[in-house]
Amino acid sequence: MQASAMGESASGITNGFVGAVGDTPLIRLHGPSELTGCTILGKAEFMNPGGSVKDRAALGILLEAEQEGLLQPGGTIVEGTAGNTGIGLTHLCNARGYRALIVIPETQSAEKIGLLRSLGAEVRTVPAVPYRDPNNYVKLSGRIAEETPGAVWANQFDNLANRRAHYNSTGPEIWRQTAGGVDAWVAATGTGGTYAGVALYLKEQNPKVRCVLADPHGSGLYGWAKSGDLSISGSSITEGIGNSRVTANLEGAPIDDAVRIDDQSALDTIYGLLWQEGLFLGGSVGINVAAAVETARRLGPGHTIVTVLCDSGDRYRSRLYDGDWLAGMGLRQPQRFGLEAG
Ligand code: PMP
Hints:
Elements: H1 3-6, H2 16-19, E1 26-28, H3 30-36, E2 39-43, H4 54-67, E3 76-80, H5 84-96, E4 99-105, H6 110-119, E5 122-126, H7 137-147, E6 151-153, H8 161-177, E7 184-188, H9 193-205, E8 210-216, H10 221-227, E9 257-261, H11 263-277, H12 283-299, E10 304-308, H13 323-328, H14 336-341
Parallel strand pairs: 2-10, 3-4, 3-6, 4-5, 7-8, 7-10, 8-9
Antiparallel strand pairs: 1-2
Helix pairs in contact: 3-12, 4-5, 4-8, 5-6, 8-9, 11-12
Bound molecules: 4'-deoxy-4'-aminopyridoxal-5'-phosphate (PMP).
The site of 4'-deoxy-4'-aminopyridoxal-5'-phosphate (PMP) has 20 residues, from helix 9.
């Protein structure tokens, strides 16, 4: 799957939903750039047709399953997901004649769960339990796939088709869009597909590209990257990122540094992006852009740093953009005048 196969055709007409995935803009973030003296760029993955970075993984996984003959017309794709992979998969299932069965922890936003239902997925919400529990949503989705005739388990965490999609599309797009001038790549990881696929590709083009893993609290990956310790403390309101284990997709990815960002900094960052840039984005973007700013500070002025704008704030309006909900989580809703004064 090459970048061009995911994106435009020679005529400029895209081939259905599938053809519209990828080839997203790389947006210069003025506030973070001016703050640091670096060029901080966000890959606009919220502009994918299913609304998130996970359209690429969903497409890569589906195309490989088709190529391997695992999916027959009318077949079912089963997946455990924080929402975005399920949303991308359900769009793709509609476009290509499959059924989508989605297992999602009930802690995820009502917007994502409602959207999955509107798109026509069969949705099973389950209690959020740790990965070691047999009823964890990922393990449950694997068992459901096994028990369902004609079903394929997307298995985004450990199916390397996920990171191959980013190695073959997101990475080359970033390299092209920066004309090879990227100094650092910064991203939080859920499955690790985005981070690892892009990091592997960019390091192959230029081993000096610094690859930085961003992580929220409540995840073991920052400690693992820094000192090999996967233990977890704290928690985060962000969705779709952080992990208690090293997935097959993250395994072997180059990691030069790691940055941990707290929820309040992530919130301040996404509200700043809304008020200063007009970009309305989700919580993982706050972790990513705040980590890109921290990376810029560590590198010093004059560097070009790329990160990911994973999805839209629309998916979290009742949470990240609701003052009462934030107060209930012990967080402060940023105030516009406060930012302008600061
Ligand atoms: N941000 C959001 C909002 C997500 O849904 C995900 C995927 N779970 C990620 C970031 C991380 O992407 P990846 O799975 O490729 O690590």
